[in-house]
Amino acid sequence: MTNEIELEALDLAALLCSRVCHDIISPVGAINNGLEVLDEETNEEMKAFAFDLIRKSARQASAKLQFARLAFGAAGSAGAEIDIGDAEKVARGYMEGEKANFEWTAPRALMPKNQVKLILNLVLMAVASVPRGGLIKVTVEGEPSRPDVTFHCSGPSARIPPAFEKLIPGTIVDVNIDAHAVQPYYAGLLARSCGMTVAAVLEGTDVIITARSSAAAAGSEEAPAEAPAAETMVAEAAPEAAEPVAVGEDEATQQA
Length: 256
Fold this sequence. Notes:
43% of the residues lie in helices and 20% in strands. The chain has seven helices and eight strands; from the N terminus they run ααβαββαββααββαβ.
């Protein structure tokens, strides 16, 4: 338990490293198991099985490392732009090792690197929202400098990721931050750095995660007086950490 608004830099770095290690430990361990089988077995069928396991696991490890390099790494100098096509490539590679099917619709364009990193981190949030698999549809629209991003996540037991409403705006009071919980926290940091608003809503049995320019969100249609029946969690991406805002509250109460 902590009353801090932001994690210390060393803690954040350590947790992100733990997240990367968590993703690659399984395929790397499988490679090791395959090599042990090759060392001990003389049966040709078992050797063929071991080679297939090693090839598949090596592809998965490589895909996850390439994804992490773009989602968490420096990805060029400050102010650099990234081809959204590169983001699609690493996202598809990452999703080959996940339970959910994956669709991506986006124009080929250069985007500020933190916006691309945000989209990739939200891919991980989308995966967490369908723990038993299903379908994740990603749509990127609008101007490259002010994209409108939607993740439509459907599947059995679809859910808004735990503590999303606190961790996206950076409120970590009474929240245990571990290698999993650091994901929405880091996504919130990215959103605030590039002036975007991230929200999640449970519509029936599907989870909808959106990321859009804060300016565009501010100019959108006013919310109705009554909150909708769907469970909604919104986090304003202002320069400073913001408190979660329930849909339907008066605009005067929405403070960054």
